[in-house]
Structures are given as C-alpha cells and as structure tokens.
Specification:
Helix content is about 60%, strand content about 10%. It is built from 34 helices and 14 strands.
C-alpha cells in the first residue's frame, strides 16, 4: 500500500484513507486531504522535507512524517488492480473514473485490531467473526503473538488482527510492548476494545490508556449475559457517551452482537458515529499542571505530535516509561523535554510522597469509578468496599447520606472559618490600631497624616484583618482537593445538577468559583458546547468567591455574632440554589442545547502531608495579599480623596462634612434607590466601590463609618462594633440602628448576587467573545439583587409590624 511519502515529483494519487490519531486526522482533513481527492507532488524542499502538494486547486506543504500517514492509490496500482479484477479482459483503456473507482474500493478496506485483557473472550470473538479456529483458553497468555483474518460485511473488508491479551499498555511485559508497538507504528483504522462485562473495573483500565492515545475505538462489551445473570444493570449507552466510545454488547461464544459490532466499526470509520469524541481524563490539579508544561515543550517540535498525542507522550514521560523515553531522542528538543519531565516528576513525588506512576494509575481508577458510579446499578451493593476508599465512599457518596454529609462539612468549614479566625483576626486588628495610633501621634496634622491613618491604614487594615479567615477557608478547600473529597462533593452535587442541565464538566467551574470566579470562568474553555459555556459563565458569579467572605464576616460578626458561621453557610447555600434556579430558567429560554456527558472522577482517598496543604493554601491566599497592594490600595486612596474633599469650613461637624464631600453627595444621590432595601447612603457607596473588588466594600465602610469615630475623643476599637452602634441621624428612621438584622440580611443578599468585580466582567467578555454577555451579566445580577433584597426587607418589615 502506497502513501504520499512514496510518490515522486510530478506523480499523482487518489487518497484512500488518513491514518493517525484524532487531532492529527482532523487537522489534515480540514486542509483538504480527504478520501477520494486527487493529490499531486509539486516539489520537495532542498532537504527533502517538507514536500509541497497540490490538492483541490491549492498548494499545501506537509512534513514527511505527516505524508506517510496518508494512504493513496497510484495510477500503476489502479492499473494492476483493474487487470486482476477483469480476468484478463482489460482493453487497455484507463480513465480517471476507473482510478477513482479503484480508490473507492481500496477505501473500503478497514484495518481492525482487537485489544483486550487476557480471558476477556477476545480470541473467541475473533474466531466467530473470521471463521478461524484459534486455540481458546481460560487463562492469560494464550495469545502469544498476533493472528490475522479477513471478514467481509456490507461491502467492506475488515483486516482483523487479534493482538495478545494485555492488562495495560505500559512497558513491563512483552505482550504489552507488542500491543502498544502495533497500535503506534501500524496505526490500525479502528481499535476494537474487547471488555469483560463481568469485570469492568479491571478491564476499563486498558480503555483509559486507549483514550489517552486519542485513537478511534469501538468497545465490544463481551460476556454481557454474565453481567445480566448476576442481576447487575449497566446503562452502556450512557457509559459510551461518557467515554466517547461506542459500546456494543456481545456474547462472543454465541455470536450475539458480532454483526452489530462491525456495523458500528463502519460508522466510526466513515466518521458518521455521533458518540465518538476525545475526552481528557482528569489527573488532578498538580499532575495536569505537569502535563501542560511537558506538552508545551513537545509542541515546539511538531513532528513529534503527528503520530503521538502530545498529551499521551507527556503522560508516558511522567510515568517514567522506559520505551517512550528513547523515542524522544529523535527530537532536537530532547534535552529540554526530558529535563522538564524529570523536574515535574520530582515536584509531584515530593508533594505526594508517592511515585508519579502510582498517582496516574490511581487517577485512572478514579475515572473508572466515577463512570461506573453514574451508569451501573449493582444487584448486591456491598455494605463495605474492598478498599479503604470504597469503605469511606459507601457513606460519603451514599444516595441518601452523601448529601447531608456534604452539607454538614460545608457548615463545619464556614463555622470554623469564623470561630477559629476570630483569634488571629483580633490580634491583627490590635496591630493595625496600634500602627494607626503610632503614626497619628508622630505625624503633624495635615492631609498626608489623614491619608495614611484614615485612608490607607484604616481602609486596607479593615481588609487585612480578614486574612486568617481567608486562609482557613482555603485550608479546608485545599484539604478537600488533596484528600479526594472535592471530587466526591462534585459527584454528589452532579446528581442534582444533572436534572437541571448542569451535568458533568460544567460543575467543576462552579466548585472552583468558591475560590475565585476569574479562573473558574476561564476553566469553562474545556466545555465543548458553546451554550453550556455561556450558561456556566453567567451563573458562576452566584458562587460566593473568597473576596465576598470579608464582607460576610464583617456583617455577620456585627449583627449575628453567635450565629455567624450558620449565616455564612446559608449565604453560600443560597448562591447554589439561585444558580440552580437561574440555570433552569436560562436553559429553557436562552441556552437550549443537548448536554455533553462527562465522567466525574472518584480518585482514591489520600491523606496529604501538612506541608502540601499549607503550600496549596498559601498559593490561594497569596492572591488575596497581592490585591492589597494593587486594586484595593488604589481604590482606598480614591475613596479617601472623595471622602476628604472638599474640606468645608472650620468648625463644621464631621457628619456634615462627610455629607458635603464628593462621595457624600454621590451617596445621597443614589440613596432613594437603596433606601427601600434598608440601606443608608454609605452602604450604597460601599456597593458601588465594591464593583472594583468585593473586598473594597469593607475598605469603604472602614473609611466612611470609621472616620467619624476616629475623629471623636472616644474612639471605638473596631469596625464591627462601630456598625453595631451606628444609627440614623435624620430622616424617617432617625434614632434607629442602621444595621438591623433585617437590613443586614438584605445587604448580605445584595453582596451575594449583584454585579461581580470588574475582573470577572472582563473575563466573561474575553471568554464569550462579546461584550453583550458581560453587560447582560451586570444587568441581570444587579436587577436580581435589587428585587430579592427589596422583597426580603419589605416583607420582613410588614411581618414585624
């Protein structure tokens, strides 16, 4: 069989098929190299690589490594084929139509490789399909080399190769090496992965390795009768959608499903099967980071990615694969690639105190566990599992107990964030007050002193006191991620989200939103469906990010000091419920689309070292500190200036001067819009400045409410106490407390829902590709916040009368 690489300058051929992995085939076919098209060699570069071809009226250059994966039929081959098929009656006339007919016949030859575990019924299936009589045994190692046969069906010829049985595609046994070498070098058109239906967990491990390779696979779910006889039920259609692999139940000993299997092979070969898609197995945050770094180095040499998936190559390097490593010697970037791989291996192994190969294997079994958890209903659910992870999962992912456990953990997390954070928060608060008093006593009166004390120290200090609370929150989140419970939490919520159109991958950005909405929205790039991406972006800001936590702690500490953790837990839960309701509404109106299936991985539980958790906690907390010296500091200075000027006349009271300041005038102008929500003008100004960053709400309150107290002789010690004692000095609420429980709930709801920070808005614009979605996010969240806060406050006032 000829390939483009075999053609010489001026020679032409008709394309029969394009071999290779999925991403390569997609790129080549998009360039016009599709079956049935004529291609002509124009010329080769001086060093014979690349080569210029003419196809569909265009000149295109391909590397030799790419051209050898494109099969063609030449004029000579078509002539010989015509001679053989005409029984010596060929008249000597050879037209373009005959050439294309010969190419069409050749394109209906499909190379199929049977791959599966020992004792999965693979050779029995091979014998039935081909009429061969290979020896079949009930033990591993029966097939010591490959066997080939031909099957004809529906006008297609299948060159079937029965490869040795193997449990994986690593480099430990001759069978494993033989199978992997056949797949990578011979490049079969379709892999038929024969799986023992009665032992799915073990058999699907090999499937995950085929998924990493990014090749076309059809699964024969063999011995399907044994699974049914055991009383188990498997939704194999859903499992196929999750894996991106068509699944056909077969009973090879009886021949059941064999014809349907090869009919499906034809569908996949002709790219007509809708189930086929390439999925990425999630190996966890740290390993994925390493894979990306190695991939970046591999992509610098494009010839390496023609035959091998860069992701597959990176994973194998992380596994220290002794066979893959020499392959990279052919690349000029070999030294850089191996140095990066070794560095990442050392980094991962030092963090987890386990070898990288084990970590990747655990992640694969977590992927399998998640897929089967969603699609398989066992007849006899064991009370306890065989492994420690299964024993724990019996309770934590139980269909009745899992959700209460998850809610209980969230409550403990938020209660701990408030209670445990109070001690260091108080110490930092004392330190901030001491620094402010010290500078105030050393500096002469004037604008610079007021800027430092009333503005920067009072404003930034009012936020930095919440650093312990932020770190405690991130400690719990890091613990959830590193132990494997975060995956369980996503799995538990996934069952609920599945019913409202948020099943699968879209829930991952929502979980990440509890940390920061910006990277969470960027993660939506992994969603294949545009409508799902947009919907996830628009509801993600309803997940309470860590920037809102200082506001929550300030208000709850001032108004609900004994129930602060429970109130904060309720706010996070409210955000989740609102996201669900908005998702249902938008899914039925703006974003009608079919959901994309996704496997929720369940990796084994692992107790991380305290150092690893602290490292991840600090990575997240560092972002909070950087904002102090950036957007928050700038916002505080601006707020102080608007509050400080104009200075007014001497002898003017602080309250009057504040109202006559630029920020005071602005606040009183917007007060009619927020007064029905239970807010005073300073709360309204805080909401406006909070558009820059939600932490700035606290800074603004520190400047606006704290300034008056700092100028009084009896200085109040901290901002929560100031808010507790704050009263209206005029208007219909004169003498009443500003921060009543009802006003506090209304204000917290508004903080939860209204327009996210400008960084989130900019990210939505960038990821959606249009300003209209960013503006829509601003409008819908702010309107929803106003309506809900108005409803809560006004209904509460009516009930209290």
């Amino acid at each position: 069989m000829s390939t483009l690489q075999d053609l010489h300058q001026g020679e032409s051929g008709i394309i029969i098929k394009v071999r290779g992995r999925g991403a390569f085939r997609k790129r080549i076919t998009e360039m016009g190299f599709v079956k049935g098209k004529e291609v002509t060699v124009i010329k080769a570069a001086p060093l014979q690589d690349p080569v210029e071809y003419k196809i569909m009226g265009y000149n295109v250059s391909l590397r030799q490594s790419e051209s050898r994966l494109i099969e063609v039929i030449t004029l000579e081959e078509a002539f010989n084929q015509q001679i053989r098929s005409s029984d010596n009656n060929f008249k000597g006339t050879f037209s373009d139509e005959i050439l294309k007919t010969s190419a069409k016949e050749k394109s209906k030859i499909i190379d199929v490789a049977l791959v599966g575990n020992p004792n999965c019924g693979k050779t029995t299936l091979f014998n039935y399909a081909s009429g061969s009589h290979e020896h079949v045994g009930n033990f591993s190692g029966v097939t010591v080399d490959s066997k080939s046969a031909i099957l004809k069906q529906n006008g297609y010829s299948f060159n079937i190769t029965d490869l040795p049985g193997t449990y994986s595609l690593t480099a430990y046994t001759p069978e494993e090496l033989f199978v992997r070498d056949h797949i990578l070098t011979r490049v079969p058109d379709i892999i038929v992965n024969v799986v023992d239906a009665s032992n799915l967990e073990r058999n699907l491990y090999l499937t995950t390795q085929l998924i990493d390779m990014d090749i076309r696979v059809v699964m024969a779910l063999n011995m399907f009768d044994e699974l049914n006889d055991a009383g188990d039920r498997l939704d194999y259609l859903s499992l196929g959608s999750l894996l991106g692999i068509p699944i056909i139940p077969t009973i090879s000993s009886k021949g059941d499903g064999i014809r349907e299997l090869f009919d499906r092979v034809i569908e996949v070969y002709e790219d007509r099967d809708r189930v086929v898609r390439h999925v990425h197995i999630n190996y966890g945050q740290e390993i994925e980071r390493s894979i990306k770094k190695i991939q970046d180095a591999i992509w610098s040499d494009k010839s390496m990615t023609d035959q091998f998936s860069s992701r597959y190559f990176a994973i194998k390097l992380l596994e220290n694969d002794p066979v893959i490593l020499p392959l990279s010697h052919t690349s000029p970037e070999f030294k850089i690639i191996t140095e990066i791989a070794n560095k990442e291996i050392n980094r991962i192994e030092s963090q987890y105190t386990e070898d990288s190969n084990t970590l990747i294997t655990d992640a694969k079994y977590g992927f399998i566990a998640g897929a089967l958890k969603e699609t398989m209903d066992r007849n006899h659910e064991p009370k306890i599992g065989k492994t420690p992870s299964e024993k724990i999962d019996f309770w934590l992912t139980h269909k009745f107990m899992g959700f209460p456990f998850f809610l209980a953990f969230l409550w403990i997390m938020f209660q701990s964030t408030f209670v445990l954070g109070e001690f260091p928060k108080h110490w930092i608060d004392l330190g901030v007050n001491y620094i402010g008093s010290l500078i105030g006593s050393l500096m002469p009166p004037g604008p610079l002193k007021d800027l430092l004390v009333d503005g920067i120290i009072n404003g930034v200090g009012s936020i930095i006191v919440f650093l312990p609370n932020i770190l405690i929150l991130f400690f719990f989140i890091s613990w959830m991620e590193d132990t494997g419970y975060m995956a369980r939490a996503a799995f538990i919520m996934d069952k609920l989200m599945h019913k409202i159109g948020l099943h699968g991958q879209s829930f991952i950005p929502l979980i990440m939103g509890f940390g920061c909405n910006v990277p969470a929205i960027m993660v939506t790039r992994t969603l294949k469906d545009r409508n799902d991406r947009l919907l996830t972006m628009l509801i993600n800001p309803l997940m309470s990010c860590s920037a809102r936590l200082p506001v929550y702690i300030l208000i709850t500490g001032a108004i609900f000091p004994h129930y602060a953790g429970t109130v904060i837990f309720g706010l996070y839960l409210t955000g989740i419920i609102l996201a669900i309701l908005i998702s249902i509404l938008f899914k039925k109106t703006l974003f009608k689309s079919k959901e994309a299936p996704f496997v929720m991985e369940l990796p084994p539980y692992r107790m991380p070292t305290f150092r690893v958790i602290l490292s991840h906690m600090w990575e997240k907390g560092e972002h909070y500190l950087k904002k102090m010296g950036g957007v928050i500091l700038i916002a505080v200075i601006l707020i102080w200036a608007l509050e400080y000027f104009p200075r007014g006349q001497n002898g003017m009271s602080q309250e009057v001067r504040l109202k006559n300041s630029y920020i005071g005038r602005f606040g009183q102008a917007i007060e009619p819009a927020i007064f029905p929500l239970g807010f005073d003008w300073r709360m309204g100004v805080s909401l406006i400045t909070g558009m820059a960053a939600k932490e700035v709400v606290v800074s603004t309150m520190g400047v606006l409410y704290g300034t008056e107290q700092l100028h009084n002789k009896e200085t109040t010690s901290n901002l929560p106490t100031i808010l507790q004692n704050e009263k209206y000095n005029e208007g219909s609420r004169v003498g009443q407390k500003v921060f009543t429980p009802l006003a506090g709930i209304s204000f917290l709801l508004f903080i939860l829902i209204y327009m996210p920070c400008v960084a989130v808005v900019a990210t939505v614009k960038k990821e959606s590709g249009h300003w209209k979605w960013a503006l829509f996010l601003i409008v819908y969240t702010t309107v929803l916040a106003w309506v809900l806060s108005f409803s809560v406050y006004q209904i509460g006032m009516l009930l209290s009368r």
